[in-house]
Amino acid sequence: MKIFLDTANLDEIRKGADWGIVDGVTTNPSLIAKEGRPIEEQVARICDIIDGDISAEVIATEAKDMIPEGLKLAKIHKNIVVKLPLTRDGIKACCALSKDGIRINVTLCFQPAQAMLAAKAGAYIISPFVGRIDDMGMPGIDLIEQIVTIYNNYGYKTQVLAASLRTPNHVIESALLGAHIGTMPFKTLDMLFNHPLTDKGLEQFLKDHNKAFQNG
């Protein structure tokens, strides 16, 4: 499973890039707004750090405006994936842009029927939101399983990007179910390193080494 960072913060992206394990980045209007720079400028900087898919989302809500905005975003860098909402207009724009060779990430997916529509529209990526479904008292990870199964049944080429991954368990379960990509905040990525036995083991290794060679 590819690992994406769900952030527009350059410092977080640089840290992930320095570890050598980040394959791409997803952004949205809220994340871009936190950084205080226009989307074109911010995603271009991200593209300079990570050589992988970088999702940039349109602001327009009608297909007639989404299409030219999507074309404009796609011209920023070869790695840009245009992000569209899973609405009627978003699907219409997805059909048009994908036919022009623009890679589309259809976002805000909360049920498998929506994912079917995105695949039919030629989406490059579908983004089901695990954590936000959990917030409603339902198991969000079930959505990943349903979409992966449906896509496998019919040979859809759309990649499943498990989004809103807030815990290591979200990441592990998404990988077990066959999600192609998991996108997560930097905090969640950092948590994947942690296990008390790793810390305890390393402490013991160093203690034994130092004891054996302290007089060397």
Order of helices and strands: EHEHHEHEHEHEHHEHEHH
Would you identify the CATH H-level superfamily? Aldolase class I
Q: Total number of helical segments?
A: 11
Radius of gyration: 20 Å
Quickly give the structural class: alpha/beta
The unreliable regions are none
Strand content bin: 15-25%
Calculate the mean pLDDT score and round it: 96
- State the domain count: 1
Total number of β-strand segments?
8
What is the helical fraction, as a range of percent?
40-55%
How is the biggest beta sheet arranged? 8 strands, parallel, barrel
The termini sit apart by: 46 Å
Q: Find the CATH topology.
A: TIM Barrel
Question: What are the SSEs and their pairings?
Answer:
Elements: E1 2-6, H1 10-19, E2 24-26, H2 29-35, H3 39-49, E3 54-57, H4 63-74, E4 80-85, H5 88-99, E5 104-109, H6 112-120, E6 125-128, H7 130-134, H8 141-154, E7 159-162, H9 168-176, E8 181-184, H10 186-191, H11 196-213
Parallel strand pairs: 1-2, 1-8, 2-3, 3-4, 4-5, 5-6, 6-7, 7-8
Helix pairs in contact: 4-5, 6-8
Give your account of this protein's structure.
The model has no long low-confidence stretch (mean pLDDT 96). Helix content is 52%, strand content 17%. The protein is an alpha/beta fold and 216 residues long. It has an eight-stranded parallel β-barrel with strand order 1-2-3-4-5-6-7-8, surrounded by seven helices. The radius of gyration is 20 Å and the shape is globular. Helix 4 (63-74) packs across helix 5 (88-99) and helix 6 runs parallel beside helix 8 (141-154). The termini are far apart. It has helices at residues 10-19, 29-35, 39-49, 63-74, 88-99, 112-120, 130-134, 141-154, 168-176, 186-191, 196-213, and strands spanning 2-6, 24-26, 54-57, 80-85, 104-109, 125-128, 159-162, 181-184. The longest helix has 18 residues, at 196-213. It has a single domain (2-213), classed as TIM Barrel (Alpha-Beta Barrel), CATH 3.20.20.70. Helix 4 links the parallel strand 3 and strand 4.
